[in-house]
């Protein structure tokens, strides 16, 4: 039987974030373009070498990116919007599309399916696609020359690419597809002529609810591929859930079908048992979880593989998806409890699992070796399973508040905020001084008193800056926090944080998701000291800043034998306790951020209702115990909000702030069809771009919003937190924002509080 091992994709960031450091050094002008290119090549080749040493048969290329693989696809096929075409340098042009320039907005950014990875949304327009550069061929030749190794090029498929793009009439998407497919064929032909045998073409759109038109498009496109390049083995790769229209998809003329047997809820196996699997195709089985960090039960995986081997004559064993979504290696994790560290499997360790399973299926190792591996893992987790508690009684906790119309009047009386109040989302720039102070404290070079004194100085500095800027609602700046989830993960019982467990979120932004290994519970106040200190420095209200339970769940690695709903309830109760502690100390506005509210949404619509019910319940469990006069805020970013307005309403937050400017205000159209009665802040400028918005641009955003929202319900704020920006950038942008809001406020008051066009 044909059995091989494979990898879907490897983390691009390097063991110690060498990729991030190289990118930011280049952006800051510390290294040249040539130095950046050389350093990136070294990181890329090192990842290939490691996969070779792990014994992987089919090693991917094309999974490495300087920013984002969807942007890479757009760039390779010439989808460069007109506003960037005047930039001559290709690397500068590429980064301009991702990050913007002083004169141009960056392209929109949003979540990659139901993950915390953000991709750059391509703009199609009237572009006639062409193969600008076959970067896959360049990478293939580089690796072959360096290691004498045949690799597997990977690229995003044309149908998924188009359906994730924007700026074209969706009724004409098949016309755009017809223009794009020949360019793919040209690329495949060049790869075939170079000797490429296998090409992985990712079409994750297949796991969503797709209609007959899309299924017909797959038939047409892959028939063209089959006729155009018959000598190349195309692997049609899916992941994150089960394939929709299974029988039609497995009948497509490709060499192999990649299926996820981890996150499919058993549906892929059910379809195979019901309809079989084509004997002439390779079953590419995603067996090891590419999205979580726990070791696999290899004996269970072996049972599954035996079943698959009985229905398919050719089998490739691989992770369920790209390992982009997990940290690189556990070998640098020395601070975790040994029993916890011994239960973890990051990217490198997952490749070891793939190799062990492949060797077993080839008859080169015994089941006893797999059982021994499992016994060690179970021994490590045994202690934490005993600690896991059940929550059976939460009926005494309020999940609803006084009707909004009544509590709004009470809040207005207490807060005395002006029309179009201005605020920020929470964090201020994490300068090198802030990072160095935190490092000195963690290394023991500073004691607690020295560190807290430094943090207080930063808080005082930025309270003063905010007052000078004349913001209406202030924040303490979150200088004591590394990440909005990691910070709480360090303080809650049942959660652990890694030393080097970095994962790419967007661009060069990397996060270390906490690990939820046992019962989550509140231990002591987490944010009260800093927030109360900030409030003592000003008469203006200071927001308490917390991360919501749904985001904490979705941005953590949760033990896969604990029900997620159970963990969600524990997190909600812990955040509720902190909310009440802040309120008891006189904090009148408390923001419970939920940027990942939509992220965990199942990809199949039939499962949406249950997810939303749990998410809404968790948020209300965390926030509904406060008094009427306490104003609850929440924040969300980079999601398809227009599809979830009814859910946002059910959260019953007094004020919701949502990213809007990165999508150039398109979200505003959602309020033309959905009447939202509570208060809302639509982000008026993009914080992920280094460009500083003009007062005129912000005024245009305010005016556009007020065409569908009432002035008395509208807040003015940036898209997101300002942690990643430089101090001068943050201050200049906020100055423009406050001035634009003040001028607009004066115009409204001059005409009785109503926009002139109403």
Characterization of this structure:
The chain has 758 residues and is α/β, with parallel strands linked by helices. It folds into two domains: 1-381, TIM Barrel, CATH 3.20.20.210; 407-749, TIM Barrel, CATH 3.20.20.210. Helix content is 42%, strand content 12%. It contains 26 helices and 21 strands. The strands form five sheets. Strands 1-10-9-8-7-6-5-2 form an eight-stranded parallel β-sheet. The protein has a six-stranded parallel β-sheet with strand order 15-17-18-19-20-21. Strands 11-14-16 form a three-stranded mixed β-sheet. The termini are far apart. The model has no long low-confidence stretch (mean pLDDT 93).
CATH topology of the largest domain: TIM Barrel
Structural class by helix and strand composition: alpha/beta
**Percent of residues in beta strands?**
5-15%
Taking the alpha carbons of the first and last residues, their distance comes to 73 Å
Number of domains: 2
Mean pLDDT: 93
């Amino acid at each position: 039987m044909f059995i091989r091992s494979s990898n879907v994709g490897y983390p691009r960031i390097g063991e110690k974030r060498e990729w991030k450091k190289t990118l930011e050094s280049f952006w800051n002008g510390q290294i040249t373009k040539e130095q950046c290119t050389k350093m990136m090549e070294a990181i890329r080749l090192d990842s290939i070498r490691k996969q070779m040493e792990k014994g992987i048969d089919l090693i991917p290329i094309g999974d490495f990116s300087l920013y984002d693989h969807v942007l890479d696809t757009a760039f390779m096929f010439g989808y460069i919007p007109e506003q960037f075409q005047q930039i001559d340098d290709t690397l500068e042009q590429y980064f301009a599309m991702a990050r913007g320039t002083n004169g141009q907005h960056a392209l929109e950014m949003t979540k990659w399916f139901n993950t915390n990875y953000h991709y750059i949304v391509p703009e199609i327009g009237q572009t006639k696609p062409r193969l600008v550069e076959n970067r896959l061929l360049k990478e293939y030749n580089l690796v072959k020359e360096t290691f004498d190794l045949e690799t597997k090029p990977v690229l995003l498929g044309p149908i998924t690419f188009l359906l994730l793009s924007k700026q074209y009439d969706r009724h004409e998407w098949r016309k755009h597809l017809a223009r794009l497919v020949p360019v793919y064929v040209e690329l495949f032909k060049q790869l075939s002529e170079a000797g490429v045998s296998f090409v992985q073409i990712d079409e994750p759109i297949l796991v969503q609810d797709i209609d007959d038109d899309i299924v017909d498009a797959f038939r047409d496109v892959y028939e063209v591929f089959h006729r155009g390049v018959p000598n190349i083995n195309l692997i049609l790769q899916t992941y994150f859930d089960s394939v929709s229209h299974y029988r039609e998809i497995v009948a497509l003329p490709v060499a192999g079908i990649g299926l996820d047997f981890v996150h499919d809820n058993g549906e892929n196996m059910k379809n195979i048992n019901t309809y079989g699997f084509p004997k002439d195709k390779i079953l590419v089985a995603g067996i090891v979880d590419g999205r979580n960090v726990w070791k696999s039960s290899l004996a269970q995986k072996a049972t599954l593989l035996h079943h698959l081997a009985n229905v398919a004559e050719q089998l490739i064993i691989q992770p369920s998806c790209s390992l982009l979504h997990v940290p690189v290696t556990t070998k640098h994790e020395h601070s975790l409890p040994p029993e916890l560290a011994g239960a973890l499997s990051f990217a490198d360790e997952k490749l070891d699992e793939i190799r062990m399973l492949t060797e077993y299926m080839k008859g080169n190792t015994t089941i006893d070796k797999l059982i021994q591996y499992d016994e060690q893992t179970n021994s490590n987790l045994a202690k934490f399973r005993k600690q896991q508690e059940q929550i059976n009684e939460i009926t005494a906790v309020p999940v609803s508040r006084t009707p909004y119309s009544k509590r709004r009047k009470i809040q207005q009386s207490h807060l005395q905020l002006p029309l179009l109040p201005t605020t920020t989302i929470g964090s201020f720039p994490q300068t090198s001084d802030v990072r160095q102070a935190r490092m000195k404290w963690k290394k023991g070079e500073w004691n607690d008193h020295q560190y807290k004194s430094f943090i207080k100085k930063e808080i005082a500095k930025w309270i003063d800056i905010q007052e000078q800027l004349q913001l209406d609602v202030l924040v303490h700046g979150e200088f004591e926090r590394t990440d909005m989830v990691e910070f709480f993960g360090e303080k809650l019982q049942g959660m652990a944080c890694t030393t080097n467990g970095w994962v790419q979120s967007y661009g060069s932004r990397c996060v270390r998701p906490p690990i939820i290994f046992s019962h989550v519970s509140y231990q002591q106040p987490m944010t009260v000291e800093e927030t109360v200190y900030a409030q003592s420095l000003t008469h203006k209200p200071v927001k308490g800043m917390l991360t919501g339970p749904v985001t904490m769940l979705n941005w953590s690695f949760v033990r896969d034998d604990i029900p997620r709903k159970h963990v969600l309830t524990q997190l909600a109760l812990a955040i509720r306790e902190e909310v009440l502690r802040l309120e008891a100390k006189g904090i009148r506005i408390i923001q419970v951020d939920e940027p990942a509210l939509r992220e965990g949404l199942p990809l199949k619509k039939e499962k949406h209702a249950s997810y939303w019910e749990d998410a809404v319940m968790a948020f209300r469990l965390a926030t509904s115990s406060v008094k009427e006069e306490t104003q609850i805020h929440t924040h969300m970013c980079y999601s398809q909000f227009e599809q979830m307005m009814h859910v946002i309403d059910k959260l019953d937050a007094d004020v919701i702030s949502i990213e809007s400017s990165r999508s150039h205000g398109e979200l505003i159209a959602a309020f033309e069809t959905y009447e939202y009665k509570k208060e809302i802040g639509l982000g008026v400028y993009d914080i992920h771009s280094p460009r500083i918005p003009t007062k005129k641009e912000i005024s245009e955003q305010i005016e556009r919003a007020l065409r569908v929202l009432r002035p008395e319900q509208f807040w003015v704020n940036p898209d997101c937190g300002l942690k990643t920006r430089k101090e001068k950038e943050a201050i200049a942008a906020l100055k423009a924002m406050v001035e634009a809001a003040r001028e607009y406020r004066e115009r409204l008051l001059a005409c009785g509080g109503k926009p002139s066009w109403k």
